[in-house]
Amino acid sequence: MEKIYHILIVISLLFVVLFFFMGNEKEKEVPIEDNVIVIENEKLQESVVNDSVSILRNNIYTEIKSRFNNVDGRFIGEKNRVVSESQSYMMLIAVLSDDRKTFDKTWNWTKNNLQVRKNDKLFSWLWKNGKVSDTNSATDADQDIAYALYLANKKWGEGLYLDDARKIISDIWKVETKEIKGVRYIGAGNWAVNDASGIIINPSYFAPYQYRVFAQIDPVHDWISLVDSSYKALNHCTSATGLAQDWCKIDNSGKVIKNFKMDKKDNSVYSYDALRVPYRIAMDYYSSNDMRALEYLKKNKIFIEDWGKNKKIFAVYNQKGEHAGKNESLASYGTQLASMSLINKEIAQEILDKKIKTIEFWEKVSFYDLSWIWFGLYFYEENK
Question: Which residues contact residue 274 at a Cβ distance below 8 angstroms, ignoring those fewer than 6 apart?
């Protein structure tokens, strides 16, 4: 009986010890994981209000890496997906931040997991559940990745970056451009060029400043002609109110089709795709002083008017210049900061002070928002 009593005591002590360690382990795991995000957000919110543009930009970069970066170089977005666009943004931000470690990690994952198309060096746009889910390419990501590699070569002097860029650039020309009635246009991806009735274009993919660089790296192809055709197509796909539309199409006769439906959506609006146009065109003026860029940005009078009336620029507009709903977009304010830095510095400063550097927009932000705010702040600093 005494032995049984001692055995029961030992078993009880073992349960106490086991419960203690299990309890402690759980207590350490969950709250610390939660608190890291809370602490980072608190620091970012303080930075939004109190810090200089340069420090805020650095803190946004830290937030992007801590919140969205997987340890292997994936930048994970909505629904646990990885898209080539997010990888390209991270490569650009990393090289412009002189962060070679993050750049190399991001590039290596992208190269090994998305650059898997059989007949070219372009990138599958969608990866999820541990594999490529859609092998079609997205031109904006392909361009931005190639441009990031060019910048990396320029900054760190590594020739392999430029070799990789050259292969991508050559295949962008071969796979993602198409000649119609003697004019070569750049499409939205391999799928857009393969459209039997013409070519589908996304005006926010046009990057004339990049094509000028590509012309130096890949002199075999006439990249300067793409600068000209991009401005031509952009102006055709922009309304009298100065608003580019999200998607556009050029048919085989060379006619621009504005009101066409894709995925049963109205693609004639200015919204979360087209909001990137002001930044890309501002970048072309910054790098080339091409007056077509400045003239185009000055046509966007609706933004100046809405800011004057409402101290707001809305996220979605129809082609008449009427805003749809009352939503604003942090990403849009990032691209407008770049544009207004060139055409209206007073509004640029007000956007910075009254929108970007206020807390109300920072409670819930996406990778897309943070990236375009970062790009806008970078442009703003470069054009003081």
Answer: 203, 204, 243, 244, 245, 246
